[in-house]
Amino acid sequence: MTKKSLVKRLQSKCEKLWKLYALRRDKVCQLCGGKEVLQVHHVFSRKNKRLFLDIQNSATLCRSCHMKVTWDDSAKETLRRKLIAKDKDAYERLYEVSLDKSLFLEFKNISWLETQLAILTELIAGRETHEEGVTKQFDWGKKRKKMTLQELNRELDKITKKLITDRRDS
Fold first, then answer.
1. Percent of the chain scored above 70 by pLDDT?
2. How many CA atoms lie within 13 A of 127 on its CB side?
3. 20 to 30 A from 56, CA-CA: which of 87, 91, 123, 146?
4. 36-60 burial by CB neighbour count: b if 16+ within 10 A, else e?
5. H helices of the chain, where?
6. Cα–Cα dist 28/22, whole Å
7. Domain containing 21: what range?
8. Do 41 and 139 touch, CB atoms closer than 8 A?
9. What DSSP designation does 101 have?
């Protein structure tokens, strides 16, 4: 496996864990309270790699609200006001970091990504839910399928085990 392909795999796995953490944390759309087709939104642009995997730079939204926030400035402002009300210090920190437009080379650093993967895995392990029998639809980009939280946990366990095996083999 090339370094470039390993970096891409680690980035993808980290993003999936980042999304899972946000979905478990929020449980419902942060704008309307809906529970259907939940997606995770980057509050500050995903182009800023310093904030790409920051768990405070995430908000769970239903598909409808996600579209509104993406295209409608008033909906975006409503979400930002809610986030400020929830944790003003975190929002201000994210805003300050978002102003830094310099390159963030760590996002392509294997050991940094492995550390982020470990941190996200630990965070998720500490946030076990009791909703495993409830079927929810999670939207992870192009792949859409209904699965229970238990099935989602099994899928992420496979990802984590594969990563550990790949690290030992390389």
1. 74
2. 18
3. 146
4. ebbbbbbbbeeebebbbbbebbbbb
5. 3-26, 63-71, 73-86, 88-99, 110-125, 149-169
6. 10
7. 3-169
8. no
9. -
Give the integer Cα–Cα distance in Å for 134 and 130.
9
At 140, give phi and psi (nearest 5°).
-110, 70
Q: pLDDT by residue (tens digit) across 100-116?
A: 888 888 899 998 898 88
Count of structural domains within the chain? 1
Residue 36: C-alpha distances to residues 8, 65, 149, 164 (Å): 30, 11, 14, 33
Two tokens at 20? 């899972």
The span from the CA of 39 to the CA of 165, in Å, is 30
